[in-house]
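Reviewer 2 asked us to include a model.

Predict the structure of this chain.
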Amino acid sequence: MSEATDIEDARVVRARISASPITVESCAAAVESASAGAVVTFAGVVRDHDEGRGVTALGYTAHPDAEATLRAVAAEIAARHPAVTIAVEHRTGDLVVGDVALACAVASAHRGAAFAACSELVNEIKKRVQIWKEQSFDDGSSEWVASLG
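Predicted model (structure tokens):
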């Protein structure tokens, strides 16, 4: 492992898939430090609608490689934004409206770097991490959606 990779890994303090509830507060606590003037968080929350249909629940399923991909994405964002520290978690299993499906926090000395890295992190996770969701609708139907959608 190169020194640069060691530094990137040290700045990714958490990157995991969890079957248990997750919170942005836990991610924020993991990245807080005396040098961090900004901690930007994101919570991807199960909402009660999708494309005009009422959603009652979601089921998330992760590929066996999903956690490794999540770690790789976080490390890449850390490499592109050398002044940030990252914590990120994605939930699997059955969730209901209001549950947190994706939680992340990015800390930096300045807000610009933290906001940019957090936005890129969420976008890359949605593109690349192998997690699928099954949406259950209020009419009794359901459908599978690739990625985090």
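Residues 3 and 118 are 24 Å apart (CA to CA). The helical segments are 3-11, 24-31, 66-80, 111-128. We have added this to the supplementary material.
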